[in-house]
Please model this.
Amino acid sequence: MHSQKKKNQMKIKAQRLIAIKQIISSRKVSSQEELVVLLEVEGYKITQATLSRDLKYLKVAKVPDAETGYKYVVPDTAQNQDEPIKQEEFPVSGVESIEFSGHLAIMKTRPGFANGIASVIDSHGPYEILGTIAGDDTILLISREGVSKSDVINALSLFMPGLKEKTL
Amino acid sequence: MHSQKKKNQMKIKAQRLIAIKQIISSRKVSSQEELVVLLEVEGYKITQATLSRDLKYLKVAKVPDAETGYKYVVPDTAQNQDEPIKQEEFPVSGVESIEFSGHLAIMKTRPGFANGIASVIDSHGPYEILGTIAGDDTILLISREGVSKSDVINALSLFMPGLKEKTL
DNA sequence: AAAGCGAATGTATAAATATGCATTCACAAA
DNA sequence: TTTGTGAATGCATATTTATACATTCGCTTT
Model:
């Protein structure tokens, strides 16, 4: 219904996003047009418009730089959070995000919440979910063959409202 | 000859710079024009041009924000410097091997090291890695769709020197 | 005081960046 | 297979941001 993959395209996009991070991590890039050219050299032909969207998606910031005027920087991966920690009130709280890769899904939770949340999921035993394995702050969900990503999200949403917004 | 102060003006400017930091620290500002207005409320009447210069002087970055599209952020006072962001460099030891199967990877570690190593990987949160789950001496890594094995190795190698040699 | 300097800033505009709209494409549902 | 839907993206343009240039102002040196 609302899939978000286009095997070929997605693959290219994912690679491009990685390339973008590599480039701006290894050298100072001061404008998007400049990066468009660098990407073209790498084999990625896109317009500035798409790049602008990519950078927004990657949360890449434009920061003043003494040497080049301005440069783009990849978020620190760790902090970068908005304020401290945004608490929310869901019947099942503690879920930070959920992402898919094939028929596998990785759900990130707040530290120590993984097992509890996984238990909740198991207890509901949705048909779409074959099984789960939980660590400390990560849960691996294996979905049944023929089940789409949206199916999984929908199934979980039944008892985990707000999950849709956690999708990356 | 080489003065750089203009008592009155300078004072006003200094105060304004402080005000700018206070404002963007306390709320999400998504454009300079918006900030110009906010500053005017505070009693500072300047144009967008001057603000652009002030922000550059303060090294204020424009970063994508899920809620407002974009927002301005004051540098972390500490890091954020140009290169000097290089910190921690404790060789991550304990890895015995790493093998792939599709977009999954199994990393074998010395007994009891899995969780610690997985934590390190998680803390760096490389884009290529969707998530990890650790047991006692084994870590399961789920890579993002469209990401190649070498992409994963390269991403991990950034903070796990010598990993390439562990590949089977 | 007059001249000289350089910082600060506004004006106007260039440059850079974001986005509405339309199109294409792959996947899911029927 | 056919149809529907959302993701991805280019194009054109709106919006935003940076800067060249000119002016003002206060301090410093004759």
Q: What stands out?
A: The interface with chain A takes residues 55-65, 67, 69-70, 73, 75, 79-80, 82, 102-104, 115, 118, 122-128, 130-134, 140, 142-147, 151 of chain B (CB under 8 Å). The two ends of chain B are 68 Å apart (CA to CA). Helices of chain B lie at 7-26, 32-41, 48-58, 114-124, 149-157. Chain B has two domains: 9-73, 95-166.
